[in-house]
Amino acid sequence: MKVSLFITCLCDTVTPDVGKDTVQLLERFGCEVDFPVNQTCCGQPAYNSGYKSESIKGMKQMIKAFEQSEYVVGPSGSCVHMLREYPKVLKDEPGWKERAEKLTAKTYELTQFLVEVLQVEDVGSTFRGTATYHPSCHMTRLLGVTDAPRILLENVKGLNLIELPLKEDCCGFGGTFAVKNSAISGQMVQEKAEHIGETKADYLIGGDMGCLMNMGGRLRRNEQEVKVLHIAQVLNSQ
Questions:
Q1: Same domain, yes or no, for 132 and 99?
Q2: Which residue among 96, 119, 139, 145 is least crowded, i.e. fewest CB within 10 A of its CB?
Q3: pLDDT recorded at residue 233
Q4: How does pLDDT run across 129-163, given as a tens digit for each residue?
Q5: Which domain holds residue 29?
Q6: Is residue 110 located within the same domain as residue 195?
Q7: pTM for this prediction
Q8: Are residues 89 and 135 located together in one domain of the fold?
């Protein structure tokens, strides 16, 4: 099975090790992974800020970059959901809606791909510690990936997983929302940090680096000794 890695901007520029863990996980289960070097931003920041025409340029580039791919897998529910939105955004662009539909049909978030396509529920990883999991808004509400991350985490040997109070609450990131509405965002992430503290967990696990960066920043400012990890890092732990 051939898989193209959709690295996402934050993983590419801030947390490249998450990309490495993603590749190693896929290779462990027999996937041949390639990396189309002409991929770029999915266009979400520009599109959500109202710059539709500018974001469309990036969307078309992404379609071309992955046009020959068998599957496309990314370590971000938020960014993968943006790719799923392409047919709607490009519906008035002659020929592009159909090309976008072909991309969306083969694009998956990492845990979704492992569970739904590869039919893997236990990746054979070991991670010793107490952790809580934050289900990010875009991954759960928009992409609809709710069960796969928990199924995989529950099968990690040595991991004590604690339920996060009010887990459905947004962490306050929301991409440009955190910049445009910083006061509101700050209060939201403070509440999230307090709920994380209630679990007494040593680790916070999530599937979207934007949310993890936001919560990690607040935890450090609060001097809460909680280490933030992307789910790929936990699943690839031995």
A1: no
A2: 119
A3: 98
A4: 999 999 999 999 999 999 999 999 999 999 999 99
A5: 2-116
A6: no
A7: 0.94
A8: no
Mean pLDDT of 108-115: 98
Question: Helix 209-221 crosses helix 182-199 at what angle (to 10 degrees)?
Answer: 80
Residue 179, pLDDT above cutoff 90: no
Q: Are residues 150 and 137 in the same domain?
A: yes
Query: Measured between alpha carbons, how far is 199 from 208 in angstroms, rounded to an integer?
Result: 20
pLDDT in the model for residue 176: 82
| 139 and 91 part of one domain | no
Any idea what the CATH number is for the domain that residue 134 is in?
3.40.50
Which residue from 86, 72, 10 is spatially nearest to 36, judged by alpha carbons?
72
Residue 145 sits in the same domain as residue 226: yes
Number of domains in the chain: 2
- Number of Cβ within a 10 Å radius of residue 64: 14
* Residues 67 and 129 grouped into a single domain: no
Cα–Cα separations (whole angstroms), residue 202 to 134, 190, 223, 228: 14, 18, 13, 9
pLDDT at residue 174 in the model: 87
The tens digit of pLDDT for each residue in 50-81 reads: 999 999 999 999 999 999 999 999 999 999 99
Q: Which of 181, 174, 172 is nearest to 218 (CA)?
A: 172
Looking at the chain, the whole-number percentage of residues with pLDDT higher than 70 is: 100
Identify the domain boundary among 77, 94, 116.
116
- C-alpha 13/C-alpha 7 separation (Å) is 10
